[in-house]
Design goal:
The chain is mainly α. It has 9 helices and no strands. The protein is flat, with a radius of gyration of 21 Å.
């Protein structure tokens, strides 16, 4: 009990900040970055998907380059380069830079997930829709995408969970996320078990909670078939 009190309830520095409050602040940063990065990633993913599926090379080439670079380099390197080099002259802050970096990273993977989901829909669906007089755009919106969404939903859920856990590297650019908060408490109190296991438990609860909600959504979509 003394270890738990020292790690989570006792002041951990001259500023009198309590360890538990620091973890809550870190959790807030983690969830903020994850939420907005996922939105940015979804927008970029959709745009990149249609660029890669375009008949024009001047759309496909930059999309392929973007996906190749992002998938070929670690996210922590992308984060550090973006913050210390690309955005160094702009006052975007640590959280803003993290949202952009993780959004760019997630967008590349989401684009591949969406593209695979669209291509998984039987080509006969497209041919049947076009034979009924639907335009290419109407076919995509009314026939292909509704079916593709059901196919890619589990993969999108996995991408969100991966993104949530990847935010643990925000500390490399000086941000205080959930993982960094646990490390700060450990370094100041010399108690490793409670803060680190607390952070691990919070990540576990978040991922299991989201997985549960996703499974309920998948079940509802199956019932609507």
């Amino acid at each position: 009990m003394d270890t738990i009190y020292t790690s989570l309830f006792a002041p951990i520095g001259d500023d009198g900040l309590i360890g538990g409050l620091l973890i809550l602040e870190g959790l807030k940063s983690t969830l903020t970055v994850t939420f907005f990065a996922m939105i940015l990633g979804a927008v970029l993913g959709v745009a990149t998907t249609f660029m890669k599926m375009s008949d024009h090379w001047f759309w496909r080439w930059p999309a392929n380059l973007y996906v190749g670079v992002i998938r070929g380099t670690p996210v922590v390197i992308q984060l550090v380069i973006l913050y210390f080099i690309v955005l160094s002259a702009l006052d975007v802050g640590v959280i803003g830079a993290a949202i952009i970096a993780f959004g760019l990273n997630s967008g590349a993977y989401i684009s591949e997930i969406i593209r695979a989901g669209i291509q998984a829909v039987d080509k006969g669906q497209t041919e049947a829709a076009r034979s009924l007089g639907l335009s290419q755009r109407q076919t995509m919106q009314e026939v292909i995408l509704p079916q593709a969404i059901k196919n890619i939903l589990p993969a999108l859920g996995n991408e969100f969970i991966v993104l949530l856990k990847e935010t643990a590297v925000i500390g490399f650019i000086g941000g205080v996320d959930l993982m960094r908060a646990g490390e700060i408490i450990r370094s100041r109190t010399f108690e490793a078990e409670v803060p680190l296991f607390t952070c691990a438990l919070i990540y576990l609860v978040l991922t299991y909670g989201f997985t549960f909600m996703l499974s309920k959504l998948e079940l509802r979509l199956k019932q609507s078939d």
